[in-house]
Amino acid sequence: MSLIAYRRKRNFRTTPEPRARAHRRGKELVFVVQKHRATHLHHDFRLELDRVLKSWAVPKGPPRRSADKRLAVQVEDHPYAYKDFEGRIPEGEYGAGLVEKWDGGTYEAEGATSAAESERAMRAGLRRGRMSFVLKGSKLRGANSLVRLKSPKQWLLIKTHAKK
């Protein structure tokens, strides 16, 4: 839940990115996908968990068809306010380039019936290295999983079939 790495990498006098501020959990958990035209074009996939956005850089973009898999590299947590961020990060700053919101919405852990239950399941999944969740966005909908690979920062983002 720490935003120390986020703060350390940014100069808020020059970047338009949001500062880290306290956030209260709502009735539903949010997700956002941002298209980031930095050194290399990629998508940033973010899931709200423990009052921050857990974040992964997805070089080839999120999977859209069942059984598609994409490498997702976990990066530092971002503040909840980042869910609405769009803008240009100036040259010389960490992540310099254009950030555009590509998709967003709500999500829940697979099989969960409340935000609190979703957070418990997702927190346990993050520790264990496998999170299963259902996205409710305009472009991304349905069951997905994040599965950690041997490297602690490398995951696979997989479009899956919902369990019945």
UniProtKB/TrEMBL annotation:
GO molecular function annotation: ligase activity
The keyword Cell membrane is assigned to this record: no
Transmembrane segments: none
Residue span(s) of domain DNA ligase D 3'-phosphoesterase: 34-148
Signal peptide: none
The keyword Ligase belongs to this UniProt entry's keyword annotation: yes
UniProt keyword terms in alphabetical order: Ligase
This protein's name: DNA ligase
Organism: Bradyrhizobium zhanjiangense
